[in-house]
Design goal:
The chain is an all-alpha fold and about 120 residues long. Helices cover about 70% and strands about 0% of the residues. The protein has helices spanning about 5-25, 30-45, 55-70, 85-90, 95-100, 100-110. The longest helix has 22 residues, at about 5-25.
Length: about 120
């Protein structure tokens, strides 16, 4: 039964096509012109593809390229390597008293004091 259904459907479509084609040849020219005009207007009034879609895609691609290129080619953040003596001074807590009176010791070194 399923083998007969596609054959019946094909015959039905063919008969309908033949009937419509025959009736199309019998139509008056003004009716044919109106049908063509109505079809053309319907096609033109249909949904139009967005023209700005390609511009938005191009802008997104440019922004993505710019972001990736800035990320890749940015200079490495370099920090100056601290002097090991400075690190030693900062790490030791016992010599902090000396640096609190640094002005006094500087004056004492500059002054010509004899004992």
């Amino acid at each position: 039964m399923t083998d007969q259904q596609p054959e019946r459907a094909r015959r039905l479509v063919a008969a309908a096509k033949d009937l419509l084609d025959d009736q199309l040849t019998r139509l008056d020219q003004p009716i044919v012109d109106r049908l063509r005009r109505a079809r053309r207007e319907a096609v033109e009034a249909g949904p139009k593809p967005p023209r700005r879609l390609w511009a938005a895609g191009l802008a997104a691609a440019c922004v993505g390229f710019l972001a990736v290129s800035l990320w890749i080619w940015q200079p490495a953040a370099t920090q100056p390597i601290p002097d090991p003596e400075d690190l030693e001074i900062l790490a030791s807590a016992e010599d902090l008293d000396l640096y609190e009176d640094l002005d006094f010791y500087s004056w004492l070194a500059d002054a010509d004091v004899r004992t």
